[in-house]
Amino acid sequence: MLFSSIPFLYYFLPAVIAVYFLMPRALKNTVLLLFSLAFYAWGEPRYVLLMASTILLFYGCGLAIGKAKKPTWKKMFLAVSVVISLGFLAVFKYADFFVDSFNKATGLSVPLLRLALPIGISFYTFQCLSYTIDVYRGNAQVQKNPISFGAYVALFPQLIAGPIVRYVDVERELDSRTHSWEETTLGIRRFLIGLSKKILLADNFALLIKLFRESGEPSVLFYWMYAIAFTLNIYFDFSGYSDMAIGLGRIFGFHFVENFNYPYLSKSVTEFWRRWHISLGSWFRDYVYIPMGGNRVGKLRWVFNILTVWMLTGLWHGAAWNFVLWGLMFAVLLLLEKWIPALQKLPTVLRRCYVLLAVVISFVLFNADTLSQAGSDLAGMFGFGSLPAITAETLYYLRSYAVLFILGFVGATPLVRDTANRIGHTKVGKILEPVVLILLLLICSAYLVDGSFSPFLYFRF
């Protein structure tokens, strides 16, 4: 079930809110667990058992780690949770990638498994791993209530596309959280802002991308329009989903971590990754990079750590070589920033342009179906292959989408947020805000009723 769908907006969400707030405090986690499993079953009915197995596995491993008297036993139960959870990922997400790569390298024909990818498996697996690792480290208490733990793992607002919510961040709220009308209204506002970013901006950029792929008259300018459109599309798609998840969390009394902080304003690649998909970057830092030694090791080992973490970051996004190269590209850029201090002394405008150029090129690689397509797209952007600089078709789409691009550029900065906050504190703003939010809901609903295609990009991961 999609957040950007009529069944979710007008049937599922009102139902879960009504039942949730009618139930006594002792049953609220049960309501969330049951509705979350139903939400997941809507799109993946056959994988509800996998979800239930994951909940029971990590619940049991958490209990075992907490009760174990000897460090070796604690480590063993932690290893069990890590091996089995990564085993699920290996089978469902990566098996065919490795088998296909093996076949191409050896000329053999080992059959592929061709298993459907369980939606959100990368997200909820990392959330579960953070729980057992933090319990092992002593950073979190063992959750003894299986309903509460199940609600944490399956919680529908962030179940299928993040942000990656660590157990320690919601540990207290799982057992004791408060609700208020103010928090609920803030949650509704955040949800509707995310919904609007997704439907009104991301989906329209997705349409331009589709038109580009179907075009019979490619040009250098059209390739750049495509690259910039996808860069904005993925930002508004994923940040829009994160906004909706954070907003829904606040309605139910949870405070999820922020996942985006206007990354396209970054002055370095390092800063970009502190602003983009924050929950993923911090997860790899705390559970992979630092345990490997981080930067507290020799130079060669540090380079190895950086390359390993970013290769894994690329693989986390998808089981294909373009994702691996995408991750390694950022590893190289991060290393260059460390090795060439002069980059940080350039004028701010040049630094921002360099980051934006690197990000746009990286997302062309990210979005390609094959390495060959990525090479073709990058060649087209830089005028290889005797492409015309511009065509009549390109000019037509440029005029048609000029307003959307302007809205995208402005929306990727804090300008809209800051202006809305200033107006919102005035008497007029307090009257206008609910009117504007209702209008946004109606406009988004009209798009959905019209049958607009509205998938989330990160469902692939």
Helix content: over 70%
Number of domains: 2
Class by alpha and beta content:
mainly alpha
**Total beta-strand segments:** 0
Task: State mean pLDDT (0 to 100 scale).
Answer: 92
Q: Return residue spans where pLDDT drops below 50 for at least 5 consecutive residues.
A: none
Number of helices: 18
Q: Kindly estimate the percentage of residues that lie in beta strands according to DSSP.
A: under 5%
Q: Gyration radius, to the nearest Å?
A: 23 Å
Shape: globular
Tell me about the largest β-sheet: none
Distance, first to last CA: 16 Å
Topology order in helix (H) and strand (E) letters: HHHHHHHHHHHHHHHHHH
Descriptive overview:
It is a single chain. It is built from 18 helices and no strands. The chain folds into two domains: 6-177, no CATH class; 183-460, no CATH class. By secondary structure, it is mainly α. Helix 9 crosses helix 14 (348-367), helix 14 packs antiparallel against helix 15 (371-381) and helix 17 packs across helix 18 (427-449). It has helices at 6-22, 28-43, 48-67, 71-106, 121-137, 146-154, 167-175, 181-214, 220-251, 269-275, 278-289, 299-317, 321-339, 348-367, 371-381, 392-411, 415-424, 427-449.
